[in-house]
Design brief:
Isopropylmalate Dehydrogenase, 12 helices, alpha/beta, two-stranded antiparallel ribbon, 10-stranded mixed beta sheet, about 350 residues
Length: about 350
Amino acid sequence: MSKHIVLLPGDGIGPEIIDATQKVLIHLSNNFNHTFTFEKQAIGGSAIDLYGTPLPDQTVTACKAADAVLLGAVGGPKWDQNPSNLRPEKGLLGIRKTLDLYANLRPVKGFHALLSASPLKEEIIKDSDLLIVRELTSGLYFGTPSERIENGNAVIDTLYYQRYEMERIIDKAFQSAQIRRKKLTSVDKANVLESSKFWREIVEEKKLDYPDVEVHHELVDAAAMKLITNPGDFDVIVTENMFGDILSDEASVLTGSLGMLPSASLAENGVGLYEPAHGSAPDIAGKGIANPIATILSGAMLLRYSFGMESEAEAIEQAVDKTIALGYHTADLNINNGKCVTTNELTEMIIKHI
C-alpha cells in the first residue's frame, strides 16, 4: 500500500520528535511492505519566520492533498511579542478549522514501568485506561467577537456552538465507547452555562441511539477532581473544546509525563491530523533529550485511523511497551533502575522491537 504523509515539524522540539517518528514509520513500512512518502511543510513560529504567517497557503494545500498529517508542536517565547494574528498557535487552530478536524481523541493509558513517575499513588492510577473525546473546531476558542472593548477596559469572548457540531462529536464518543467498555461520561457545566444545558439535552437524545452504552453526566469541576482521585472509573469522556483541552492535559499526570500522550484529530470525511499532546518545550530543543514516544504513538494512531493498518499500529505500540518495560526512558521520566537515553537512542530501541 502506498500512502503520502505531510510532516509539520513546527517549533521547539517538534523537528526532533517528527524525525524520530518518520524513522519508525519508514522502518515499519519496510517490514510490512508498504510505501510511505513524506513531505515537510512549515507551521507555527517557524512559518512566521519563513513566510510571515503561522499557516502558509502551501501548507494548507499540501495537507488537503495528503493521506494523513503528522504534526510536532508549535509556539515558544520567541514569538510572544508578535501581534495576535501572528501567534504560532494560530497556525494550529487554523489547520484544524480548515481541515474540519472536529474530533480530538486522546487515549490515556498508564505504563506499568512508569507508575512511579506519576505524582499520584500507584493504587489510584494502576487501572487507568480512558479515552478523552474533545470537540475541536468550535466553542470559546473560535467564537466571535473575541476582543477588547470599551476603550480597553472590558473584554468579550464568545462561546458559540451549532447543534450539528455537538451532535457529531457526541456520536463519535458513543461509537468509541461501543468498541471499548461501553461507558460514556459526558462533561459539562449545565448548572451555569446555557451551552452546557444544550449539550446535555443532546447527549440525552443521542443515548437512545446507543442503548448498549451506559451514560453518566459530570460537571466539569467534579470530573476534574474524579480524574485525579478515581481515574479507573472512566472509560470514554466526551466534552466541548475548552473543557477537553484542560482535562486532557490534567490527565497527563496519570502517565507521569505529557511526553507519553498521543492524539488524533479527525474529520468526518477527509485527512486526519496526528500530534503529541505536549507543547514545543523550547527549553530543551536541540539538546537531543526530547521524549519522542507521544509522537511515535501518534504515528500509530495515524496508521490505525487514517490507513486502517491495525496490525502495524499494534506493532508500534507493542514496541513502545517493550522498550519502556526494559527501563529505557528520556530525562522527563523516572523509571526505577531504568536507563536514561537520548531521543535517538530511545527511537532506535523502539525500532529494534518492531
